[in-house]
What does this fold into?
Amino acid sequence: MDPEILLADGFEEALVGTVQIFNKTIALYDREKCIKILMDRDGMDRDGAEEHFEFNVTGAFMGDYTPAFATFFEKPCTRRVSKRRGRQHPVVGSAMNIDRRQEPERRAAEVDGSSQKSERGAENP
It folds into this structure.
């Protein structure tokens, strides 16, 4: 482990790994596990544990190597990233998670429909 890494005292069970940010390696903790530790260890209720955590833990800046606290999704994220002009831009799929590159006819129809909607101010039947 990098000797510069700062660890959050009392949250050893919530440490899930490290994160590279530019040229630094910082500790990564599971936010939910930290909240549960505060509830179990210190007898706090959920609201009290969250308030304490936000103010005293995530609100404490300890320099460039301040630990990060992640909230993990219960379901996989369906967000995709595309590259345009050398930058990364989020591309969010539809509710049905359709890959637009595989359905050019459908995409063209949606584009035509949306341009008619904006021109007339009402949806096409």
In short: The two ends are 61 Å apart (CA to CA).
